[in-house]
Design goal:
The chain is an alpha+beta fold. The chain has one domain. It has twelve helices and six strands. It has a six-stranded antiparallel β-sheet with strand order 2-3-1-4-6-5. Helix 1 runs parallel beside helix 10 and helix 7 crosses helix 10.
Length: about 240
């Protein structure tokens, strides 16, 4: 990249007013020992730590969420999840058949292809080529990233979610596998297990478009973004009442 990841990350934080860091995600085909977390944790929890400044490496041995382990190709999906029993018992679906159908549609990486997933703050990821950049923040902040992704090309975007596996599948696997921007509203798991706020949500985009996205954000920040946040039209409207 012609610009350092530290600089790109700082521009995103400054332009959008993000309270936490964008996260660089890298899938490793060989075991990556450094920063291997000894505690077992869920992917959404690793993402939480990374956006607050830590580096974490998850493998089949230390990832605590079986659904995320299957999504990354680390382990097979347990039958109780695949058949829908667990999700129905949690009250997320009316019956196991509905949960089973949702799980059958989940994109997953090839079994055994990757041995680890590395997460670290984008600002600390020099020397890493991120496969995906994941951002947690306010919907309005993520809106500008999404607009930046089509700033030069135009077009409409279709997002996909099962309202389950929001961070591991929707914000990470989908952008990586399909090389597209994807956003969602979170899910039961990440909202129960991580510090994502009620007002926040999550999105991911392919690392290959990072520089273009940040450049487009800078151009949006020159005019459109401050005008929208200034709410002059709204203020004029309420001032007439």
């Amino acid at each position: 990249m012609s610009v350092s990841l530290r600089e790109l990350a700082q521009k995103m934080v400054d332009i959008l007013g993000l309270k936490t860091q964008p996260v660089a995600v890298k899938f490793c085909e060989r075991t990556y020992g450094d920063h291997l977390e000894q505690r077992k944790m869920r992917y959404c929890q690793a993402l939480m730590l990374a956006r607050h400044g830590e580096e974490v490496v998850l493998t089949a041995e230390n990832i605590a969420c079986p659904a995320a382990a299957a999504a990354f190709g680390f382990k097979p999906l347990p039958e109780k999840i695949a058949e829908g029993d667990m999700l129905a018992n949690l009250g997320l679906f009316a019956q196991p058949a509905a949960a089973k159908y949702t799980m059958s549609l989940m994109p997953r990486l090839e079994r055994g292809k990757y041995q680890a997933v590395r997460l670290l703050p984008l600002s600390q990821a020099e020397g890493v080529v991120p496969d995906v950049v994941v951002v947690e923040g306010l919907p309005e902040q993520l809106m500008w990233i999404i607009l930046a992704s089509v700033f030069n090309t135009g077009g409409r975007l279709n997002f996909e979610t099962g309202v389950f596996q929001a961070t591991c599948v929707d914000a990470t696997v989908v952008p990586f596998m399909k090389q597209k921007v994807n956003a969602c509203f979170g899910c039961y798991g990440c909202r129960e297990a991580s510090d994502i706020d009620l007002s926040e949500t999550v999105m991911g985009f392919p690392g290959g478009i990072l520089e273009e996205v940040v450049d487009s954000l800078s151009r949006l920040a020159a005019k459109a973004l401050p005008r929208a946040r200034g709410k002059s039209v709204y203020k004029g409207f309420v001032g007439q009442q």
